[in-house]
Structure prediction request, 142 residues.
Amino acid sequence: MGESLPLILLLGVAVIGMLFMSQRGKKQQAKQSDFRNTLEPGQQVMTSSGQLGAVVEVVGDAVTIETTPGVQTRWVKAAIQAVPPQFASVLEPAESTEALEALDTGEATYVDDVLTDPGAERPSYGTAQDRDDEGTSGPARA
Prediction:
């Protein structure tokens, strides 16, 4: 009996630890379930794959989110979660008032997601053939 006491104590501690971990997991699942059941249009969310956006519509188990203006995607509710605090700043509007006014007046446009002056010359990177002729791309040739 004396030799098995440490083993019994070790098993008892392991069982108690598993019970605490199980309770914690259940609380997290309940919290996520409550969040998903109270989704409303306009609410900022993040998908399980890291896509950020705003809820547009919730129909049954389907959630439509808008990631950028005019781009909407449908997700199952189980893939939707709250935006973690470290990503909240990503959802803040990055444009300044001056930049938005420039867009409205036509003084600037979005090109490749960069605010640019429409009169500015865009850099030319050449074609793949040009770069290949200069030996700057592709496998080395003998």
